[in-house]
Design the sequence.
């Protein structure tokens, strides 16, 4: 699985960073970005889905669900 | 309640967010409007106000900075003197493109990592508050506890005297809750606040400190120092917006846990659930209703909106929309999918959201550590604030 944060949509709610800090980080301005090119190891897929389901701005998407 | 207006005759056509009925329980009002053929209600009060109630409509307006201006976000009888794009209290009152730079100045001080540094101070203060009421059988979760926490933290961040808490709470009450007061009276409220803050800014100019007021007086935007109205407006924003909002969210969480034994027992047994439960309290009891002004005559979903009419943005109503949330009217403390908008949506997302979440978590952790069992001492004694920030203002809790 690979995920991506749309920086145009992200408004810095920081929900992804709080729910899955292994997969997302935020800068000083609260803008989130995916870590490790967005690659989600199998054991963190549930966390990735949780982060996606809690983003109020619908800013995170799965770019590759393989 | 100030009660300057006549009682509401019909909620679909004459609503008033300062009415005591709205303050006591606004949810049936929003549910009825949202389920009706006209989910965007209109009232002629305040010179014209619109009230979208669905998540779809509230978010559409929050995202539409072309047709709606933020130059004032508190619905009152008057219209703001401050001009767009700066507005009266930047950046909440600012429109693009000015908004972006004014907001970026503030964001680093409220980042998750900056906020973490304030946690020990907050925790110690919460313990201090409960030490001072130790042994009492009834503690007021709002008066003795919640109302003090955000005041102390924001005063420390801004560099304002920590002992001026009562004064700050009066400023907040005057500005955000007495929204139906006559304009002359509201003007006096602003003068009082402005006089106080001008004196504090002058002290900081004479004696710089490591705090947000010093930061703002030295800050630059596009290579220029901030104008005095920008500095003053931002200090007002940080002081006013950070206080009764978080106080309301902490109080509403305690209200819920006092009235729901099963949820309280579960959180005591599974404290790791707390962050998730906090998101659910934020969804179900979102304190803040924002507002916009219509820029020019404009039709929104068939509603003929006129220039300078208000639009309330009831995020707490969006958060109860059954078209967007399953079991929208139930509090599910382990809700997995929770895209709530308690902190707004779009470019005006609450700049203090990380701080508010930290204060809520610490306040609830400390409370539950001290009191694993508590109930409403007298449900009829609980009172809620009116206007655009809703939360318990009296919350007597029986703790033993």
Sequence:
């Amino acid at each position: 699985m690979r995920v991506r944060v749309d920086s145009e949509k992200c408004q810095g709610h920081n929900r992804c960073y709080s729910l899955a800090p292994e997969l997302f980080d935020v800068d000083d301005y609260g803008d989130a970005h995916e870590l490790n090119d967005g690659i989600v190891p199998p054991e963190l897929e549930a966390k990735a889905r949780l982060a996606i389901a809690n983003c109020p701005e619908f800013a995170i998407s799965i770019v590759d669900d393989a | 309640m100030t009660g300057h207006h006549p009682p509401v005759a019909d909620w679909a056509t004459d609503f008033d967010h300062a009415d005591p009925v709205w303050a006591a329980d606004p949810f049936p009002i929003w549910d009825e409007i949202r389920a009706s053929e006209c989910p965007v209600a209109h009232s002629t009060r305040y010179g014209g106000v619109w009230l979208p109630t669905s998540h779809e409509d509230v978010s559409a307006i929050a995202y539409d900075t072309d047709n709606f201006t933020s130059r004032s976000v508190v619905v009152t009888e008057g219209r703001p003197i401050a001009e767009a794009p700066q507005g009266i209290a930047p950046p909440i009152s600012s429109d693009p493109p000015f908004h972006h730079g004014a907001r970026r100045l503030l964001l680093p001080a409220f980042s998750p990592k900056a906020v973490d540094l304030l946690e020990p101070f907050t925790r110690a203060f919460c313990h201090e508050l409960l030490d001072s009421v130790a042994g009492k059988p009834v503690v007021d979760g709002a008066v003795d506890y919640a109302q003090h926490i955000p005041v102390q933290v924001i005063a420390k961040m801004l560099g304002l005297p920590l002992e001026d808490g009562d004064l700050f709470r009066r400023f907040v009450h005057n500005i955000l809750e007495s929204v139906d007061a006559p304009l002359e009276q509201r003007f006096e409220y602003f003068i009082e606040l402005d006089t106080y803050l001008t004196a504090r800014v002058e002290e900081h100019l004479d004696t710089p400190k490591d705090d947000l007021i010093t930061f703002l007086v030295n800050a630059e935007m596009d290579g220029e120092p901030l104008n005095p109205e920008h500095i003053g407006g931002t200090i007002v924003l940080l002081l006013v917006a950070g206080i009764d909002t978080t106080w309301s969210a902490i109080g509403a969480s305690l209200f819920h846990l006092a009235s729901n034994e099963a949820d309280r027992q579960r959180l005591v047994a599974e404290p790791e659930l707390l962050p998730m439960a906090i998101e659910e309290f934020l969804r179900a009891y979102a304190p803040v209703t924002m507002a916009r002004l219509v820029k020019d005559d404009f039709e929104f979903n068939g509603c003929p909106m006129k220039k300078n009419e208000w639009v309330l943005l009831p995020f707490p109503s969006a958060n109860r929309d059954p078209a967007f949330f399953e079991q929208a009217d139930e509090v599910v403390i382990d809700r997995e999918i929770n895209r709530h908008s308690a902190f707004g949506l779009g470019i005006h997302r609450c700049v203090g959201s990380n701080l508010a979440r930290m204060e809520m978590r610490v306040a609830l952790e400390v409370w539950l550590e001290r009191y694993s069992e508590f109930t409403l001492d007298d449900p009829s004694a609980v009172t809620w604030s009116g206007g655009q920030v809703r939360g318990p203002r009296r919350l007597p809790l029986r703790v033993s």
User: Anything to note?
Assistant: The mean pLDDT of chain B is 94. The first strand of chain B starts at residue 40 and ends at 43. Chain B touches chain A through 23 residues (CB under 8 Å). The radius of gyration of chain B is 20 Å.
